[in-house]
Amino acid sequence: MKAREYEEVCAFFENSNGGEAEASMEAVRSRFPHISVDTLLAIDSQLHTRRLRLSHHKLRQPHLVQQYISRYVEGEDILKISSVYEINPCLLARIILEHLFGLTKHQITECLKDPGCLPEDIVKQVSEGICISSSSQSSELVSAGDMNISLQTRTCHISWERLHDDLYKCMDNDNATSPYIELIRRVTGIEYEAHLYRQLKELGISFQTENDLREAGFSKTPDVKLDVPIAVKGRVVNWIDSKASFGDEFNHKNQAELQFQRYVNRFGPGMVIYWFGFVEELDIHPDVLLLDDFPSKQDIYCLPSLCIEPIQYLKSKLDD
Fold first, then answer.
1. pTM for the structure as a whole
2. Which residue among 35, 37, 126, 284 is the one 20 to 30 A from 139 at the CA level?
3. pLDDT 10s digits, 142-182
4. What is the Cα–Cα distance from 179 to 162, expressed in whole angstroms?
5. Helix (H) / strand (E) containing 226
6. 271 forms bridges with which residues in the sheet?
7. Minimal CA–CA distance to 97: which of 144, 64, 155?
8. What is the mean pLDDT of the chain?
9. Phi, psi dihedral angles at 303 (to 5 degrees)
10. Is pLDDT above 50 for 70?
11. Beta strand residue intervals within 261-299, DSSP E
């Protein structure tokens, strides 16, 4: 994909960001019918993640956290709160678990993976009905978790059932930071690595996986190290890295390029496959070939293998 077209896709997504996710995707697909759905989804996901990183500190400002908690303890639906403040539901759940119940980051991560993993003391509190005062302009202060929040004297009731259901709501309705999404990304990456292994085996190309290299004592390794170099489209390839993402300037030039250079320094020239496409103008490194799919058999040249042992071959030549 050319850089200009990529910018058009990004702009279209940004302008459609206010609408429903499905409707926005349909509009983008209609505007760019020649681009695969997987590629469009990858671009949209990466843009959303980038926006989240940029706004993360703003969404955690103390006065906003106070408002989130105030509305939540007053009984407002957690998804409505996330919509009003344009904050991802799972990020809002993290803030509530941290500041309202005093959970650690590790505990919060485990709870979002499985709400049944709430610590026993929290389960006991909410099972009995935890009473928390709601925020106002009052000067009275009561500590909630690790944060001081202004409170009124009237109290609100948060039941175990509500907290449990709200965590599931957040997980089910968050298309960017939900543990479900993280699992999908991880599994997708593994599936494409497995696909790469199958392609190499079908061609009889001997290789070592990332796990093989780590067991041998290497660190920061590519997904595949070829035992014997191959040529792809006239370029020498010693290693291959699999990326189940779209290669744009941010995640390639600003992040991955240094990683690939380390591979070049250690193993020589190699190849990176961005399975969901990449910006063509980024393919400028003389020792790192960028592709959006496994190369065809016609584009690959493998060194011929000897039919006899090398030592025997040399001896036969000397005898001649």
1. 0.76
2. 126
3. 334 444 444 443 445 677 778 888 899 899 988 888 888 88
4. 20
5. strand 224-232
6. 240, 289
7. 144
8. 81
9. -65, 135
10. yes
11. 270-274, 288-291
Q: Which residues contact 101 (CB under 8 A, 6 or more apart)?
A: 122, 125, 145
**Integer Cα distance of 112 and 170 in angstroms:** 9
Q: Quote the tokens at residue 25.
A: 């995707």
Mean pLDDT for 40-58 is 83
Bigger pLDDT: 99 vs 288: 288
Q: How far is CA 88 from CA 67, 153, 163, in A?
A: 15, 30, 17
Pairing of strands 147-150, 141-144: antiparallel
Question: Rounded distance, CA 320 to CA 100, Å?
Answer: 86
- Nearest-angstrom CA–CA distance, 179 and 175: 10
| In contact, 166 and 78? CB cutoff 8 Å | yes
Query: What 3-state class would DSSP assign to 270?
Result: strand
User: Which residue type, as a one-letter code, is found at position 314?
Assistant: L
**Which of 184, 167, 198 shows the shortest CA–CA distance to 100?**
167
Beta-bridge partners for 132: 156
Which residue, among 136, 116, 114, has the nearest Cα to 126 in the 3D structure? Answer: 116
> 134: Cβ–Cβ under 8 A, 6 or more apart, which residues?
70, 73, 74, 151, 152, 154, 155, 156
